[in-house]
Design brief:
- The chain has 137 residues and is α/β, with parallel strands linked by helices.
- The chain is 25% helix and 12% strand.
- The protein has a single domain, classed as Oxidized Rhodanese, domain 1 (3-Layer(aba) Sandwich), CATH 3.40.250.
- The protein has a 5-stranded parallel sheet.
């Protein structure tokens, strides 16, 4: 019987860095580990979009993220366009656990954004597996 590895926080994670049994959907999601690697690419890093509420953003956030709460996505979509007005830039959306960010990604795709994914497990898994300095709540 194989043992599930633990993140530095002691929380068990699978080899992808996700909670065991997480139903990962690669066409819609990206893992926190993949986000970390993508953000290291200074010339082509994705836009990091936090779709939580302002009080959650005040508690903790990923450095460089832009806050647009889920309920404001449609009204503020133009703010997420590339400098040339296109909707093809890479955007990674996150929330607390990943549910709202999937809804935000769905909305953005419906609005014509072509390169949007949700960060699987949200900022909670980011804190567990990537950056323990980000507070959990």
């Amino acid at each position: 019987m194989s043992k599930t590895p633990n993140a530095p926080s002691g929380v068990p994670l699978d080899p992808r860095g996700l909670p065991p049994g997480y139903a990962f959907k690669p066409e819609w999601e990206i893992t926190p580990r993949q986000v970390r690697e993508a953000l290291r690419n200074a010339t082509a890093a994705p836009m990091l979009l936090d779709c939580r509420e302002p009080d959650e953003f005040a508690l903790c956030r990923i450095e460089g993220a832009v806050l647009v709460p889920l309920g404001q996505i449609e009204q503020r979509a133009e703010e997420l366009e590339a400098d040339d007005g296109s909707r093809s830039r890479e955007i990674v959306v996150y929330c607390h656990h990943g549910r709202r960010s999937v809804r935000a990604a769905t909305t953005l795709r419906a609005l014509g954004f072509t390169n949007v994914r949700s960060m699987a497990g949200g900022i909670d898994v980011w804190s567990i597996d990537v950056d323990s300095a980000v507070a959990r709540y």
